[in-house]
Design a protein that fits this description.
Layout lengths: L3 H20 L16 H21 L9 H8 L12 H23 L3 H6 L2 H17 L6 H21 L5 H26 L5 H26 L8
Helix pairs in contact: 1-2, 1-4, 2-4, 2-7, 4-9, 6-7, 6-8, 8-9
Length: 237
C-alpha cells in the first residue's frame, strides 16, 4: 500500500536531482549580470536543494544506513526511547517537512525576485536547524540523522547567504538577526506544538495545520524587519 509518510523522502530526492540540474542553467537566476553565488534567489534555490538532501538523510536513509531514523531521534529527545510506541504522529513529520521545504523553499525563491528579504528568510530554517543537529552531536558524542548535511551544507551555505544579503543587497544586520530569530521561533513552535499534542491539548488536525502555516511566520518576521531597516533594499529589479 502506498504510504506517503514513508515515500516522500524518496520523492524529494528525485526532485533534488532535477533541481540540481536546473541550478546549472540560468532558469533559476534572478540576475545574470553577477555570479550565481551573488544572487540571493539562486542561493535560495540552492538552499532548497540542500534541504531536500538533508531530508533524505533524516527520513530516507541516513549515513549509518538506517531507514526513517529521524523520527526515532525526535522521540528519544522528547523522552520516548521506543519509536514503536512513541506518540509523535507520522503526519506531523510529513507536514513539517513538506511545508518548510517543498512549499516554503520555492515560495521564498519566487517572491525573493521582488523582495530579497523573503529569499533570505528561507535560511532561517537551515541555519537554526544546523544547531539542532550539531549541539546534540557534540553533547552526546554521537551521530544523529541529518547532522552530516547540516554541517557540510547548511552552515556554510547559510553563512554565505547572510554575507550576500549584507554586502550585495544591503539588507542590514537587523534583517540577518531577524532571520536567525525567525528560525528559532519556527523551531520552538514545531517543538511546543507536538508537546501540546502529546499532552492532549490539541488534536492532530490542529497540530498538522500549525506546521503548514509555521513557515509563513518566519517569512513575515524577516520581511517586516527588513522593510523597517532598509526599505530601499526591500524591492529588487
Amino acid at each position: 500500500m502506498f504510504a506517503f509518510d514513508h515515500v516522500w523522502p524518496y520523492m524529494g530526492l528525485g526532485a533534488a536531482l532535477l533541481l540540481a540540474l536546473l541550478l546549472t542553467t540560468d532558469i533559476l537566476r534572478s540576475d545574470r549580470s553577477v555570479s550565481r553565488w551573488q544572487d540571493l534567489v539562486w542561493l535560495t534555490w540552492a538552499g532548497t536543494l540542500a534541504y531536500l538532501l538533508h531530508q533524505f538523510e533524516e527520513h530516507g536513509i541516513d549515513a549509518e544506513g538506517a531507514h526513517y531514523a529521524f523520527r526515532g531521534f525526535t522521540c528519544a529527545t522528547l523522552g520516548f526511547p521506543d519509536a514503536e510506541t512513541c506518540p509523535v504522529p507520522l503526519s506531523y513529520i510529513t507536514s513539517v517537512n513538506v511545508a518548510a521545504v517543498w512549499l516554503a523553499g520555492p515560495a521564498a525563491a519566487l517572491l525573493g525576485r521582488r523582495w530579497p528579504a523573503l529569499a533570505l528568510s528561507y535560511f532561517s530554517i537551515p541555519f537554526v536547524n544546523f544547531f539542532g543537529h550539531a549541539v546534540p552531536c557534540l553533547i552526546n558524542g554521537a551521530y544523529n540523522p541529518g547532522v552530516l548535511t547540516a554541517i557540510v551544507v547548511f552552515l556554510p551555505l547559510s553563512l554565505w547567504a547572510f554575507r550576500v544579503a549584507l554586502v550585495r543587497y544591503r539588507l542590514g544586520w537587523s534583517t540577518v538577526f531577524a532571520t536567525v530569530l525567525a528560525g528559532v521561533i519556527l523551531h520552538a513552535i514545531l517543538l511546543l506544538s507536538v508537546k501540546a499534542y502529546i499532552a492532549g491539548l490539541i488534536g492532530i488536525v490542529v497540530l498538522d495545520t500549525i506546521q503548514v502555516i509555521n513557515p509563513m511566520f518566519a517569512g513575515a518576521i524577516v520581511f517586516l524587519v527588513g522593510q523597517r531597516a532598509s526599505p530601499r533594499a526591500m524591492m529588487h529589479g
